[in-house]
Each structure stands twice: as structure tokens, then as C-alpha cells.
From TrEMBL:
Its main location: membrane. One of its GO terms (molecular function) is CDP-diacylglycerol-glycerol-3-phosphate 3-phosphatidyltransferase activity. It comes from Paenibacillus auburnensis. Keywords: Lipid biosynthesis, Lipid metabolism, Membrane, Phospholipid biosynthesis, Phospholipid metabolism, Transferase, Transmembrane, Transmembrane helix. Gene3D superfamilies: 1.20.120.1760. This is CDP-diacylglycerol--glycerol-3-phosphate 3-phosphatidyltransferase. It is found in: Membrane. It catalyses: a CDP-1,2-diacyl-sn-glycerol + sn-glycerol 3-phosphate = a 1,2-diacyl-sn-glycero-3-phospho-(1'-sn-glycero-3'-phosphate) + CMP + H(+).
Amino acid sequence: MNLPNRITLARICLIPIMMFFLLVNFKFYPEPIHWGSFQLSVNHLIAAVIFLLAASTDGIDGYIARKYNMVTNLGKLLDPLADKLLVSAVLISLVELGRCDSWIAIVIISREFAVTGLRQVALLEGKVVAASKWGKIKTVTQIVAISLLLLNNFPFQFVSIPVDDIAIWAAAIITIYSGVDYFVKNKELLELHNA
């Protein structure tokens, strides 16, 4: 249980805390933040900060593990699991809150599980499916889109541009493309496994 793995576990532990602030609406919360036509509940602001904190640890644990030669099998298992739990939890919560279309959440979550399955097949063959450029772009667009949805499209709300909607559509499209890209580049794994 080295430092990178502890950071990954901390990311997983932040998920239920984030969901508490996102979904539980107690009377003791302060009044929502008002700024002209913009409104954001304090609990959703806290949830957004926790999400951004958790998402930022993704790069930190991987960087430390690689730089200090602390890569472990546990880390290889926990890191992608933590990412998928974080994204899945927040997307399902946003669907519950009426901030995200359910089909977008289903598409994104399905892609995550499909690529995880592909990686499991690769492990059976003694190979590793490395993160691709499109996989990294997918992660960034998902974080940006989810953050904008959590923050009620701040600051673009003031100029009446639905950047949050545009961003989640872009995230869904890039997520699909990156998933297809993984399968096309690793199709020999499926052929070997079926042989």
C-alpha cells in the first residue's frame, strides 16, 4: 500500500462524500448562491469542488507511481476502477437531478466497461492496453463537461451560451470515438481470444 495507491483509495473514498453533498438536500444548508440570474446551491458547489479534487488525483497518483517506480498490480487494478466509479457515480447523480440525459450517461458508462473488458482480455493474453491519446482527451472532456453541469454552466450562464450541454455532447462523442479506437487498435486481442 504505497503512496500512489493511497491517493487512489482516497479518490474512491471521496465518491460517497461527493454524492452526499450532491443528492442529500438538508434544511441546514445555507441559502443558494445568487448572482444576477445565476443560482447555485452551496451543497452542489461543495460536490463540484470534491469532484475536481478527486479528478485531479488521477494524474497525481500515476505520475508518482511512474516517476518513483512504485507501479504495482494493485495500482493497475485500483486506478481505472476509481476513475470509472467516480465518473459513473457523478453521471448517475446528474441524471437523478435532471441535469444530464440518461442516454449520455449510459453511453459513457458502457464505453468505460467495454474498454475495461478489453483490458481484461489483454491481461489474459499477457499484454497491456496502454492509455491512448484519445483516451486522455476523453477523460479531460468528461471532467470539463461534468464540472460545468455541477456548476450550473458557470460562468457561461452569464452570456447565455449552453457550454455545459455542448461539452457533455462532445464528451459523449469523444467517449464513443475513443472506445472504437481502442477496439480497432487492439482487434487482434479479440481474434486471439476467440481462436
